[in-house]
Amino acid sequence: MKKILIKLSGEALSNGGSDYKQETLIDVANQVKALVDEGTHVALVVGGGNLFRGKELIEKVAVERPTADYIGMLAIVQNALVLRDFFESRALETRVSSAISMQQVCEPYIPKRVERHLEKGRVVILAAGLGQPFFSSDSTCVQRALELGFDMVVMAKNGIDAVYDDDPNKNPEAKKIKEITASEVLEQNLTFADPAAISLARENGLDLKVIGMDDISKLKDENIGTKILAE
After folding, report:
1. Taking Cα atoms as reference points, which of 109, 35, 42, 121 lies closest to residue 76?
2. Which helix (H) or strand (E) covers residue 30, if one does?
3. Is residue 17 over pLDDT 60?
């Protein structure tokens, strides 16, 4: 696995709050740098849930779903810019590539440019989702991974280190699943990711892996996390 796309939730950057937690940013930067130093090409997709939740806005005021989704994309860009500057401060060369054009603060998403950055050992943060409403950040991960030829999508979770047959935070008897197919994930209605993203990965032969935030630097270890096989 030479090209890895890592999905981070926005909440993970703040441990569930709205403020960024420096300890978390330091840990993520160090782990990503370890991967880059060993020659892995790394891109990130980050969510924006720590800053904005479209569903909550729709319920409170007369805002349409597409508008709420676009606002969410702007929150993602904010997180991406924070990560970029923090990574750069720790000698990790980073670029933000946005699906929504805002050239004063980041580059527009151009696949060949992203590939060139990766070849030069730079981390690329893919921001603003797919630039279209009704698509989750999970779907963004899978679509970008397929378009850019990544070997795997790795979903780094906050508070959980793998996929379980039940919620381990509520059921201490929940069993960790080491390997499962995408079809089984959909049949069993496991909710660690958007079903549309799982289906897209299955249809295009892309494997996924679910790990904990603390295991990013060890993501290639077969004993870490859960691997979701396309089939």
Report:
1. 109
2. helix 22-37
3. no
CATH class given for the domain over 3-229? alpha beta
The residue ranges of every structural domain in the chain are: 3-229
Q: How many C-beta neighbours within 10 Å does residue 60 have?
A: 8
Residue among 46, 219, 32 at smallest CA distance from 118: 32
DSSP class of residue 200 equals: H
Whole-number Å distance between alpha carbons of 2 and 152? 9
Residue positions counted in the chain = 231
Choice among 23-27, 52-56, 146-150, 211-215 with the minimum mean pLDDT: 52-56
pTM of the model: 0.93
Q: Read off the pLDDT of residues 18-31 as tens digits, 9 standing for 90 and up.
A: 678 899 999 999 99
Tell me the per-residue pLDDT of 190-217, one tens digit each, with 9 for 90 and over.
989 999 999 999 999 999 999 999 999 9
Measure the CA–CA gap between 214 and 24, rounded to whole angstroms.
Answer: 9
